[in-house]
Amino acid sequence: MNATGMKATEVPAIAGAYLFEPTPYADERGFFCRTFDADVVRSVGLDPDAFIQDSVSRSVRGVLRGLHLRSGAGEAKLVRCSYGRIFDVVVDLRTDSPTYRNRASFELSGETQVTLYIPAGCAHGFQALTETADTSYRIDRPHDPAEDVTIAFDDPELAIPWPLPVTSMSQRDREAPSLAKVLQHRES
């Protein structure tokens, strides 16, 4: 832990991914914590100024979003559950990565305010575990819908153990192709 009350921990299953873990200060009023620290981000070799857009999504229990990926140069992002709890999944789809095709899952929560750094070239998805779950994103490129790629959340090759039955998802996510089809399309 450094003086800022936040530490960075590598994610072994996904090369270049990190968890940024703050130390919330709690008292009878609730809590306060730092959710972003440029010095800590810089300490692991990332450029804190590269993140140019912040977004938030609100989901209800059982909602599943993903698996999403950006084509082209990809998109690096910082993801944090700012309220509630989510089951978060990252799949490494960088062909030159030592952890290519690995997946890792995490429970992110408003209680801990842990932020997950997801490198460009990795697919990402999550499921809301609480009645309300707010998920905050900080991305390093402007969003271009023409670059959106979606992979089936229930692809048997990935065998992601989603913790709840899916109560709702977008039509795009529901109709997403398999990982094999996405990879075949990327290679052609």
Describe the fold and architecture:
Homodimer. Pfam families: dTDP_sugar_isom (PF00908). There is one protein chain. The protein is mainly β and 188 residues long. It is 10% helix and 39% strand. A hairpin with a 2-residue loop joins strand 3 (25-27) and strand 4 (30-32). It is globular.
Tell me briefly what this model is:
Pathway: Carbohydrate biosynthesis; dTDP-L-rhamnose biosynthesis. The chain is built from three helices and 13 strands, in the order E-E-E-E-H-E-E-E-E-E-E-E-E-E-H-H.
What would you report as the Rg, rounded to the nearest angstrom? Answer: 16 Å
Q: Main β-sheet, in a few words?
A: 6 strands, antiparallel
- Which residues form runs of ≥5 with pLDDT under 50? none
Q: Give the class from helix and strand content and strand pairing.
A: mainly beta
Total strand segments: 13
Average pLDDT figure: 94
Give the termini distance in whole angstroms.
45 Å
Helix content: 10-25%
- How are the strands of the biggest sheet laid out side by side? 1-2-10-7-12-5
Number of helices: 3
General form: globular
Instruction: Name the helix and strand elements from N-terminus to C-terminus, one letter apiece.
Output: EEEEHEEEEEEEEEHH
Percent of residues in beta strands: 35-45%
Catalytic activity: dTDP-4-dehydro-6-deoxy-alpha-D-glucose = dTDP-4-dehydro-beta-L-rhamnose
EC number: 5.1.3.13
Function: Catalyzes the epimerization of the C3' and C5'positions of dTDP-6-deoxy-D-xylo-4-hexulose, forming dTDP-6-deoxy-L-lyxo-4-hexulose.
Family: Belongs to the dTDP-4-dehydrorhamnose 3,5-epimerase family.
